[in-house]
From TrEMBL:
<keyword id="KW-0812">Transmembrane</keyword>
<feature type="transmembrane region" description="Helical">
    <location>
        <begin position="6"/>
        <end position="25"/>
    </location>
</feature>
<keyword id="KW-0472">Membrane</keyword>
<dbReference type="InterPro" id="IPR002403">
    <property type="entry name" value="Cyt_P450_E_grp-IV"/>
</dbReference>
<comment type="similarity">
    <text>Belongs to the cytochrome P450 family.</text>
</comment>
<keyword id="KW-0349">Heme</keyword>
<dbReference type="Pfam" id="PF00067">
    <property type="entry name" value="p450"/>
</dbReference>
<dbReference type="GO" id="GO:0016705">
    <property type="term" value="F:oxidoreductase activity, acting on paired donors, with incorporation or reduction of molecular oxygen"/>
</dbReference>
<dbReference type="InterPro" id="IPR036396">
    <property type="entry name" value="Cyt_P450_sf"/>
</dbReference>
<feature type="binding site" description="axial binding residue">
    <location>
        <position position="476"/>
    </location>
    <ligand>
        <name>heme</name>
    </ligand>
</feature>
<dbReference type="InterPro" id="IPR017972">
    <property type="entry name" value="Cyt_P450_CS"/>
</dbReference>
<keyword id="KW-0408">Iron</keyword>
<dbReference type="InterPro" id="IPR050121">
    <property type="entry name" value="Cytochrome_P450_monoxygenase"/>
</dbReference>
<dbReference type="InterPro" id="IPR001128">
    <property type="entry name" value="Cyt_P450"/>
</dbReference>
<dbReference type="GO" id="GO:0020037">
    <property type="term" value="F:heme binding"/>
</dbReference>
<keyword id="KW-1133">Transmembrane helix</keyword>
<keyword id="KW-0560">Oxidoreductase</keyword>
Length: 531
């Protein structure tokens, strides 16, 4: 009798002992992660702390402060780490074998149609990347007649006329930069005629940018708690408001319309190669669409794709990701570059002097002739200004999560943390890597001069830590396109104008993965420069 009475107490005691072991003793003393410093006292035991930080949009600054306090490897949750070093840090995590997890599912489009960015496994990802890398390479972009025609058209027929139309009226240059960046990327994806024209169509620009921005703060639930989000959705509780899904659908429809126009252009010209087109049509060639279509057909074999609608959605999902990844980031970078340069009139003058050495100069009278892209690469100040903006104001400053592979890994600059198990979420973030004071003196200051006066050794070190485009197999495929368009836009602007900030309220970057100015604007006034 007394024995059976004791049984529940014994069971309770066992449960308590097991819980103490599982939730206190193991994480504090026995887990291979136990020696790694915690970003917060709760991080060893629960993910609630880091979830709260993410929910409040405080992630990048909080993780950075924790790295400054606790070193290059820190624990964010029972199964989550952050690294802030190159050796046994980003070189380990981003060089292969560490797959993407559920966090990237959100970037699939058309109800789950994956694109390169959201493909979890490297095998599938690399086969898609092989289809696309060549057309995004520097050599291809710099020698492509289509890219040359696109650049000339967008700079002379859209961007400069738009700037000229402003007179001395202040305007939001962030919206204009987002527009020209979208037109560049869409023209390369779909061709000039089938792509966007946000630069000249202000009404459409406002519609699109509002639609796009309205969705920004609704990523938390599906990205951080995907299972809870879908479980609640299955019983009718939607954590993402319906209008966000509607906004996504509108953007998807818009992309499909550009895909279909590109298909019609290709069919009309019956050309798969840009070289086959005549001079007038060259800018209308849908480079990326055409490449993806032919590479997919090749991959499908001689019978071609079995489901044409599925193929259309696969292509649209991929291209939608490129336009979204391409316009937002480039617009943000240009905005911060102008914000910084506007505080430095002396540097604007030096930049202009450098730009006047280009041949031909980027003035309306030289329309349609632009200097070659490679001549822009040789301008030290222009390149230093861009590199420094990408460092201090990385458009994607937030963590890029990966999962530790089967077999685990070793972390820490001196390999201090061996035996990290598989299945751990691990990230690095440009925000922190770019603020290492041992590498970038006065890291919080925008100092393009650092690239002009540092020794070769220092420059090499700065470039090892430069991470605005990520690194490894999943690194940004569009980095060379972004740099090309940024250089043309900045060169066109400062050859012809000075910029003066009128209102920079809310210019600070949001503390999120892709980080635009909090206020969504930068109001400037242009002053025409005389020859
Ligand atoms: C200043 C401009 C840009 C910045 C700072 C930037 C930054 C990045 C970063 C950091 C990643 C890796 C993200 C991660 O793994 O979580 C990435 C990936 C990517 N970016 Fe960019 N990007 C820029 C412009 C562009 C442009 C113009 C395109 C147009 C094609 C583009 C397309 C992509 C794609 C498709 C990926 C996924 C690559 C893959 O999964 O292999 N980006 N970008």
């Amino acid at each position: 009798m007394s024995q059976s009475l004791n049984l529940p107490y014994v069971a309770l005691a066992v449960c308590i002992a097991l819980s103490i072991y599982r939730f206190l003793v193991y994480p504090l003393f026995l887990s291979p992660l136990s020696r790694i410093p915690s970003a917060h006292p709760l991080a060893k035991f629960t993910s609630l702390w880091i979830l709260y930080i993410r929910y409040r949009n405080l992630e990048n600054s909080t993780i950075h402060k924790a790295h400054q306090k606790w070193g290059p490897v820190i624990q964010l949750g029972p199964n989550e780490l952050s690294v802030n070093c190159v050796k046994d840090g980003i070189l380990t995590v981003y060089s292969g074998g560490f797959e993407k997890g559920d966090w990237y599912n959100l970037f699939a489009n058309y109800e789950g149609v994956r694109n390169m960015f959201s493909m979890p496994l490297s095998k599938q990802h690399s086969s898609r990347k092989r289809m696309l890398s060549n057309i995004y390479s520097k050599s291809h972009l710099q020698s492509s007649p289509t890219m040359s025609s696109i650049s000339s058209n967008l700079i002379f027929d859209r961007f400069l006329p738009e700037l000229n139309s402003k007179g001395d009226t202040p305007f939001n240059i962030y919206a204009l930069f987002s527009a020209i960046a979208m037109d560049f990327v869409c023209a390369y994806l779909f061709g000039l005629e089938s792509g966007s024209n946000l630069t000249q169509d202000e009404e459409f620009r406002t519609w699109f940018l509002d639609l796009y921005d309205s969705r920004r703060s609704y990523n938390f639930w599906p990205q951080e708690l995907p299972r809870l989000t879908s479980a609640l959705a299955s019983i009718g509780i939607n954590l993402t408001p319906k209008w966000v899904n509607d906004a996504n659908k509108e953007i998807e429809e818009w992309t499909l319309s550009m895909v279909d126009k590109s298909a019609a252009v290709l069919e009309k010209t019956q050309a798969q190669k840009a070289e086959a087109l005549n001079e007038a049509d060259i800018g209308n060639f849908p480079t990326v669409y055409s490449q993806l279509l032919s590479a997919s057909a090749k991959a499908a074999g001689k019978d071609g794709p079995s489901d044409h609608n599925r193929e259309r959605l696969e292509i649209a999902s991929e291209l939608l990701d490129h336009l979204a990844a391409g316009f937002d980031t480039t617009g943000i970078t240009l905005t911060y570059l102008i914000h910084e340069l506007s505080q430095r009139p002396d540097l604007q003058s030096s930049l202009r002097q450098e730009l006047l050495t280009l041949s031909p100069q980027i003035t309306q009278s030289n329309n349609p002739h632009l200097p070659l892209p490679k001549s822009l690469d040789t301008l030290p100040l222009l390149n230093a200004i861009i590199e420094e903006t990408l460092r201090l104001r990385a458009a994607i400053p937030g963590p890029q999560p990966r999962i530790t592979p089967p077999g685990g890994c070793t972390l820490g600059p001196q390999g201090e943390y061996p035996n990290i198990p598989s299945g751990i979420r691990i990230s690095a973030l440009a925000h922190s890597l770019h603020r290492n004071a041992n590498v970038f003196t006065n890291p919080e200051q925008w100092l393009p001069e650092r690239y002009l006066t540092s020794s070769d050794e220092q420059l090499k070190e700065m470039r090892r830590w430069f991470w605005a485009f990520g690194s490894g197999g999943r690194m940004c495929v569009g980095s060379k396109l972004a740099l090309l368009e940024i250089k043309y836009v900045v060169a066109a602007l400062y050859t012809n104008f000075r910029t003066v900030v009128v209102d920079d309220g809310g210019i600070e970057q949001m503390d999120i993965y892709t980080a635009p100015p909090r206020g969504g604007k930068l109001i400037v006034r242009l002053e025409r420069v005389e020859d």
